[in-house]
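User: Second chain of the day. Same drill as before.
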Amino acid sequence: LPTNPRTPVIMIGPGTGVAPFRGFIQERVALAERTIAKHPESGISDWGTMWLFYGCRGANEDFLYKEEWPKYAGVLGDKFQMHVAISREGPRKPDGSKIYVQDLLWEQREKIREALVEKKGYVYVCGDAKNMSKAVEAVLMRILGEMSGGSAAVEGQKELNMLKEKSRYLTDVWS
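Assistant: Same format as last time:
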């Protein structure tokens, strides 16, 4: 987790992949509470946003830490944005296929590109190596490439490689 809370953080962790991000957010909440206590007038207004892209099968089946997320949002306010894909329930794509975390990432593409390119944010991916991490990487390349007027295959790959080289794109994935 970047030590500077002004740095945006994008966390993608469906299923049990969300566990480390719970710790990231708890750490930021504790820091926010101390900061707000010391500086009630300015608080955390200049902090970067923490985005959490989480996925599960069912809202009442395997939505991990479901009761905790609203509490964290209560402290962090608009500095914590949670986007949830519930694959076996909820909305579907126009073609009837399921919505996954990579689809939610694409929906937020302008903000994600701004966070990564302009605000030098970090991306963390934790979970399935077989499908999810590859799909997330493809969407990030598309965001970084197309949003800058290029292609996912060329400019997007170049930008993603730069994030990896600077340790601003980190993964903990398994199959």
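The chain is about 40% helix and 20% strand.

User: Great, on to the next one.
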